[in-house]
Amino acid sequence: MSPISPRSVAGSGMGWRERLSHLPRDTRDTFFLLATIAATALPHLDHVPLWCGLMTGLMLLWRGLLAWQGRPLPGRWALLLLIALTAGLTLLTHRTLLGREPGITMLLMLMAMKTLELRARRDAFVVFFLGFFLVLTQFLYSQSLLTGLWTLLCVWALMSALVLAQMPVGQPSLRLAAAQAARTTALGLPVMVLLFMLFPRIAPLWGVPSDAVGKTGLSNEMQFGAMSEIANDESIAMRLRFEGPPPPPEKLYFRGPVLSRFDGRSWRALPGQGPQAAMLGGSAPEVRGPALRYEITLEPLRLSVLPLLESGPEAPGTRLEAQGLSLWRGSELQWLSPRPITERLRLQAQAHLDYSSGPRRMSASLLAYQELPPGLNPRTLGWAADLRRERLQDLSPAEYGPAAVAAVLQHLREAEFIYTLTPGRYGDNSPHLVDEFWLDRRLGFCEHFAGAFVVVMRALGLPARVVTGFQGADRELQDGYLVVRNAQAHAWAEVWLPERGWQRVDPTAAVAPERVLAGLALQAPPGALAGTVNALSPALWRGLQGLRSGWEALNNRWQQYVLNYSRQDQFDLLKSLGWSSPDWSALGQLAAGLLGLIAAAGALWVAWQARAHDGWSQLRAALLRELRRLDVPAQAHQGPRLWAELLRQRHGARAAPLEQLLLELERARYAPAASAPDLGWAARRRRLRAFRAAGRMLRTPSSP
Predict the structure, then answer these.
(1) 446 is catalytic
(2) How much is the pTM?
(3) What residues form the membrane-spanning segments (predicted)?
(4) What does CATH list as the number for 364-467+490-517?
(5) Cβ neighbours around 525 below 10 Å, total
């Protein structure tokens, strides 16, 4: 009968399941390897050029088609042409062949091309190790729990393919290879966990994962409409855990960039916010009431301003060390970093919800907070002048500021302003954006209300500024943590009042109090699918929301206990083990000792595995040693009958008792169960003692 070929299977008329079950071993293993490579490459499709993803998929499909139809692989010239095309496209796309992005692009293409010359096992090994390296590069873009689980699955598949390659004979099943790969991986887990817990924690040399890129929209600049881009971003911005009960959502304001310079369209931060300038920026805020101590884990927001809870007691210029990063407090009470935060940051902080800051009397430092761009928004300035003349003219300086704030907030409540995430664009037909918002359309959200409110306050002669950050949090705790989402980004105002200093005023609360009082996130209208599910089955929608909360709680544990595992955590572990003042040498000693124990245990395991463990094999090994003492050239692969013949050839008739014992052992092992002699433990011991006694007699010289 001729052997089955892929071409004959493809044309046999069988279904695809039957075809797969009848495929030759090499074809089946090739399909499994191609599927594994596709799974490994899948997470990179968002990070490589479109042409790279398409060409990788086409090459894998091409290789699969060749294996299915049993056709020969392409020649060397075709591969050289593909390599040249890949290098040219990479250079055209990235302008270089060096660096992370071009390197991963080339790696993905080369691994796909290598499958087109899978002619020998060594070619498969190259693909395996390229695959392992490609799995590692997934963490350059994301370190989430989902990435970790997918990476584990890819490693398991690659290990299974490697096990198949180490079984060149027969038709081993994929299930057998996967089980062997799982056992091998499990044996390596103790070493992996040990290295994770004790290996020195150092910053990555390759840069920052792409999932670290912040999506908050917060920056040192704010434009009308900018914050609407994050309305649907439900990703987590930070997590907090308070020592006691958390405060109500309306009290949670996380201070981010302070924007004080307005050009008619954009709000920007004042220059000169370095640590030296901050030390001259004023005194510490006056705090009242108990301190709220909390732990905060900030996602990588790519901001040089850390949005911490308002307000800590520290004075401007105060330094704070967090995970090797030196922070300082700016003159406008925000916490600043010398570079954007591009990795998760966990720190301990405290805040007082009742506080006041800034000078109590008018000074030159406040003049910058009264400036307005000349020639812009004349109708808003006129409106402010009318308000001042009609309602504020006869008030004393101490009464003027609070009355002005109250009058403008009353106008916001009564003038039919509408809080919406889709206000449309402002300034398309006129440079007077505030006029259009304040007096005409009156549609907007927090940045519109905060920016326009500050303009009106300045028009009334009061220093004012815009503060951006986050407000509120999810109502439900997740694993003991309060969750603040990017959709809870917010903008509010601060107004300086005589004898009071800077006072927070949230004009959004006058228009949409539910946004502030409940700490709700910005809520865009639900999409068609979400709206349909919610309408048809509210219970299903609540269940999906519960699943999301559960997943986020699990992801929080991953971040807290794995991603945020730091040097301090290592030293705390050593302290719990008895080290009073742990350092790097203590870590090294403990790691070396434990690795030595694991290596010794592994060596003992290998030695134990090399020994025979069943009774028959142990008896054979003992008999083989006795035969070699009698100078009989017996080998382990030979049977008792052949040993008996070799014994007779070496010692003649004197070996008859030993020969008889060996033949009895053969019958005990291989005869039918009904007629076989007993070969239990006691019987084996008796036979071995008898064999040794006969052997000693045989070694004794015969009498002349």
Answers:
(1) yes
(2) 0.59
(3) 48-65, 77-93, 123-141, 147-165, 186-206, 584-608
(4) 3.10.620.30
(5) 12
